[in-house]
Amino acid sequence: MRSISLAIALLAAASGRPVLAQTAAPLPAAAPSPGAAEAAARGRLDTMLKTGHAEADWFSDSFLARVPLSKVDEIVGQLVAILGAYQGIDGSHGDYTAHFEKGTDEMIVQLDAANHINAILFRPAKF
């Protein structure tokens, strides 16, 4: 950005026109794309269900203030104990279905602006 401003100032000076100093406003931070949010949610759920473990950096601070990671791991462990080995996940836009050997579990996931899980709801297992 500095080199662009310097180049504009040099061009203006070379043209013999007066140069007006202007401070460039900082660009707003780019919002995560819907595709990035979708990939983040699915990837985190898939990894969590495969490994039986959730990572703290996947969740917002407000979520972690309400729900300890050990509770999320406990719920995932219960799903595997009831439904068998995890097979895969499908769904989109916050509504997902995890497939296991003996059934499925529907989950609703809400992400914050930084693509951290802000809410997760595990629905009753279906056989």
Care to describe what's here?
With 127 residues, the protein is α+β, with helices and mostly antiparallel strands. It has a single domain, classed as Nuclear Transport Factor 2, Chain: A, CATH 3.10.450. It has helices at residues 2-14, 34-51, 61-66, 69-83; strands at 86-92, 95-100, 104-111, 117-122. The protein has a 4-stranded antiparallel sheet. A hairpin with a 5-residue loop joins strand 3 (104-111) and strand 4 (117-122). The longest helix has 18 residues, at 34-51. It is globular.
Produce a short descriptive summary.
The protein is α+β, with helices and mostly antiparallel strands and 127 residues long.
| Portion of residues within helices | 40-55%
CATH topology-level name: Nuclear Transport Factor 2, Chain: A
CATH architectural type = Roll
- Record the strand order, biggest sheet: 1-2-3-4
Strand segment count: 4
Largest sheet: 4 strands, antiparallel
Number of domains: 1
- In angstroms, what is the radius of gyration? 24 Å
Task: Summarize the SSE layout with pairings.
Elements: H1 2-14, H2 34-51, H3 61-66, H4 69-83, E1 86-92, E2 95-100, E3 104-111, E4 117-122
Antiparallel strand pairs: 1-2, 2-3, 3-4
Features:
127 residues, alpha+beta, Nuclear Transport Factor 2, Chain: A, four-stranded antiparallel beta sheet, 4 strands, 21% strand, disordered N terminus
